[in-house]
Design brief:
The chain is α+β, with helices and mostly antiparallel strands. Helix content is about 55%, strand content about 20%. It folds into two domains: about 190 residues, no CATH class; about 130 residues, no CATH class. Strands 2-3-10-5-7-6 form a six-stranded mixed barrel. Strands 8-9 form a two-stranded antiparallel sheet.
């Protein structure tokens, strides 16, 4: 049997049994569509979360008060936690390989200007905040490098606060009451949008020292440290740890490097993406069972045809290839239809819900199609071997 004849025989069965072929391919298509849709959403979520965490760079270290480890026994009064202070931040800034340091305190307060009042987030920051987080000021300037003990009552507005309280007006040089205290507006930030649930546009920025006083806090909530990209992370962490232990008398703080946090987060998201894809793969296995069932029925229905082929000189291997080819073609065409369906649904969902992150990597698409062909091949092996082993004389009698 020539190869073109084999192709014609393989495709003729699709024409002769169009409905059966369509339903069989549909099972694979639904499985592939489920895999593509779920992995597109999982991978989109993966990339979205990582981009949210890494948009400020990976050379960041967060210093938080309190040692986040469980000890074997109570250490009583020796275990007291000393708050992080602005002086701690200034001391860290003088260490080698440190680029920027930002002491931070956040809270919620009422702001008032031009007869309008609203509640918003108040971010107590240092003068290097914009450098540490690569955020720009749209107009005016950011907070100056003042002595913390004499921090002036200056405020920088987020773009949404500016629009709400100073619509159509130039806020620079004007005054804004934050938590009942009068602040002079010296700048407006560029629109940034929401970052991990925090709307930086709906925020006002004041000196960290004044925020500590406003919220009656004994210490900072966090110190963000931006180190030089070419510096060794472990060396930088050791120097920060040694300095703060000397200042506090014990290690009553925790260092959270952005780089290691991203590695852990990436590993967790990879597992989630794989698990989501595996759930979609169950549908693909169901499609494989459908191919096995249909191909088994096809061998029974076409017994006489197989006997005629064998009587005309077709070898067992050629009959085997005929039925395997049908199974592979069914699964391949079903897989391509599933790819188109899955990508279409994913992109359609993204258009309907723009906030839904969707991304379909070509590698996933190729693996899904390869999986469809592999499952079709595996499902067709047993029926194909049964067809190839039929006795020609017995097969002809089935007519």
């Amino acid at each position: 049997m020539l190869f073109p004849d084999l192709i014609r025989l393989t495709t003729s069965s699709f024409i002769a049994y169009r409905l059966r072929s369509f339903l069989t391919g549909l099972g694979i298509a639904v499985g592939i569509a489920a895999v593509i849709l779920l992995t597109s959403i999982g991978e989109g979520l993966h990339q979205f979360v990582l981009s949210e965490f890494s948009q400020f760079g990976t050379n960041l270290i967060g210093i938080q008060p309190g040692k986040k480890q469980t000890h074997g026994a109570s250490i009583g009064m020796l275990g007291s936690v000393r708050p992080l202070s602005i002086e701690d931040a200034q001391a860290v800034r003088r260490l080698p390989f440190i680029q920027y340091v930002n002491p931070s305190v956040t809270g919620n307060a009422e702001v008032r200007a031009s007869g309008k009042t609203r509640r918003t987030m108040v971010y107590g920051a240092g003068h290097e905040f914009t450098d540490a987080f690569t955020i720009r000021v749209q107009t005016g300037s950011f907070l100056p490098d003042d002595d913390p003990s004499q921090a002036r009552a200056f405020v920088v507005l987020g773009s949404k606060v500016r629009q709400e309280l100073f619509a159509g007006l130039n806020p620079l040089g004007g005054y804004l009451r934050v938590g009942g205290q009068r602040y002079r507006v010296i700048g407006v930030m560029e629109p940034k949008g929401q970052i991990l649930g925090f709307d930086l546009d709906d925020t006002v920025f004041i000196p960290a020292a004044r925020a500590l006083e406003m919220f009656n806090r004994p210490g900072l909530m966090e110190i963000q440290v931006n180190y030089q990209p070419n510096a060794d992370l472990d060396s930088v962490m050791r120097s920060i740890t040694a300095l703060l232990k000397e200042r506090h008398g014990s290690e009553d703080f925790t260092l959270v490097p952005q780089e290691k946090a991203l590695e852990v987060l990436g590993s967790v998201l990879d597992v989630i993406t794989f698990a989501v894809g595996a759930l979609g793969g169950i549908s693909l296995l169901v499609g494989g069972v459908g191919i096995l069932t249909i191909m088994t029925m096809a061998v029974t229905e076409r017994t006489a045809e197989i006997g005629l082929l064998r009587a005309l000189g077709a070898r067992e291997r050629q009959v085997l290839m005929l039925f395997l080819g049908e199974a592979i073609l069914l699964s391949a065409l079903g897989g391509l239809a599933g790819l188109a369906l899955g990508v279409g649904i994913a992109q359609g969902a993204h258009l309907l819900f723009p906030a839904l992150p969707v991304h379909t990597p070509w590698l996933f698409a190729a693996l899904a199609e390869l999986s469809a062909v592999t499952i079709g091949l595996a499902a067709g092996v047993t029926p194909a071997m049964r067809a190839a082993r039929l006795d020609p004389v017995e097969a002809l009698r089935a007519e």
